[in-house]
Amino acid sequence: MKLSKLSRKMLDHHRAAGRTKPFAFAVITLAAVSLIVYSETTMSDVSLHLLPFNKAAVDQQEARMPESVIHPLAVVRSLQLQSIHEEFGEADNKDDPEDHSSYPLVPPLNVTEEERIRWLRENLVNFVILKSDNTTRKFHSRVVRFLGQRCLSQFFMTWISPVSSFGSRELLGIESLFRAHPKGCLVIVSRTMDSRRGRKILKPVTDLGFKVLAATPDLPQLLRKTPAEAWFDDLRKGNKDPGEIPLAQNLSNLIRLAVLYRYGGVYLDTDFVILKDISSLRNCIGAQSVDLVSGNWSRLNNAAMVFDRRHPLLYKFIQEFALTFDGNKWGHNGPYLVSRVVERVKSKTGYRGRFSVMSPMAFYPVGWTHIGGLFKSPENRGDARWVEAKIAQLSRDTYGVHLWNKQSRGLRIEEGSVVARLISDNCVICRSIYSS
Questions:
Q1: How many CB atoms lie within 10 A of CB 290?
Q2: How far apart are CA 63 and CA 67, in angstroms?
Q3: What are the residue ranges spanned by the domains of the chain?
Q4: pTM for this one?
Q5: Which of 48, 185, 386, 390 ranks highest by number of CB atoms within 10 Å?
Q6: Which stretches of 85-195 are DSSP H helices?
Q7: 116-133: per-residue pLDDT in tens?
Q8: Spatial separation of the C-alpha atoms in residues 167 and 171, rounded to whole Å
Q9: Considering only CA atoms, which of 211, 202, 213 is closest in space to residue 172?
Q10: Which SUPFAM superfamilies does the record match to this protein (predicted)?
C-alpha cells in the first residue's frame, strides 16, 4: 500500500485524537491503521455482504462498556420516533405538546426492583406513551392511507423527546433523506411531533411536496399478535420492572422493530445524513464495528434497518426483546439485542440467505469516539486535503453517516468541515447549517 494513503489515514486518526502522540505510540498506531486500512479496503465494495461474527470481540467490548451508558460523555436522553405528515384534521392534539407529560419519566436510582415496580404503578397515569385513546387508535389507518400515496419507498423514524428538541439538525437530516428519495414517504412515530408545533417544524419540507407524516403511535395495536404483546400488557398493568433507564428510551427500540414488522421499509434514527438511495437495499442491518484481525463483525446497530414486512428476523428481534428485557443496561434492548439474535440465527435453516449484514462503511463509517473530527473546519492545506479525501470516500462507499447525536449534539458544525460539506451537498432547503 502506498505511503500517501497511509498518511491520510494517520491524519484521520490524529485529527480525531486532537493531540500529538509520542513516537512510540505513533509506531503502534501505524500498525493498527494498516489493519484498519486493510479492513476498509476489503469491505468498501460490499453492499449486501454478510460479515462473519466475532464473539470474543463482543465479549471484550461488553466487559469494557458501562452498563447504563454508552461512554462517559453519553447523556440519557429521550429516544426519537419515526415520523409522517398528512392533513391531520381530528388528529390534532388538544394538549400542549410541551406539557410535562411529554417528557420521559426517569425511575429513581439505587432502589430495589420491587421499589421500581411500585414507582411504575404509582406513575402509570403519567406514561402517555402507554395509553390508547381516540387519537392513537387512528394510527394504523393514518399510516396505511399515507403510505398508499404512490410511495416509491417508505421510511420510519421515532421521536419521543419534546417537540422543542427537534431542531434544525434533525430537519437537515430529513432533507437529506428526500434529496436521495424525492418520491419516498416518511413516517415519524411521535406524539409530540403529531401537533401544531410539530407540523410547523416540518412545514418547510412538506411545502416542497415531500411526503412526511407525524403520527401518535398506538402501542397496544402495534404490538398485537407479536411476541411482545403479553409483555406489554404486563407493563401497562405495572407488573414489569422498568429498570433505571427511561422507559420511553427502551420502548423506542421496540417501536422501530414493530413498525418494520407491521409495514416493512427502512428505519433510520434522526441523526443520519443520507448520501445516496437506500431503496435498492433489502433485508439488511449494518455492522457498527469489525474485528481488525479477523474482519468479522463484532457489533451490530439498530439505528438503520431495512426489512420486508413480517420478516422472520424482525419476529426474532421482538421475541428477544420480550424474553430478555433489561431496563438497567444501556444497549441491552437495542444494539446488543440485534447482535445477540443475528449471532444465534445466522447459520440456521430458514435464515441463511434471507438477510445481510453490511459493513460499517454503509451506515457507521465513523465511530462515536471519532465523530468530533468531522465537525472541525480545516486549519491548513493538509486538513483540507483530508476533508476532500474523506468526502470522496464517504460519497463512494456510504449510504448514510450516523452522527451519534448523544456525543455530537453539543458540537458546532464548522464551515468547511466534513459534516458541513455533506449536509450542504445533500440538503434541499439548506437553512441553518452552521447554527444547527
A1: 24
A2: 9
A3: 3-361, 365-436
A4: 0.79
A5: 185
A6: 113-123, 139-147, 168-180
A7: 999 999 999 999 899 899
A8: 6
A9: 202
A10: Nucleotide-diphospho-sugar transferases
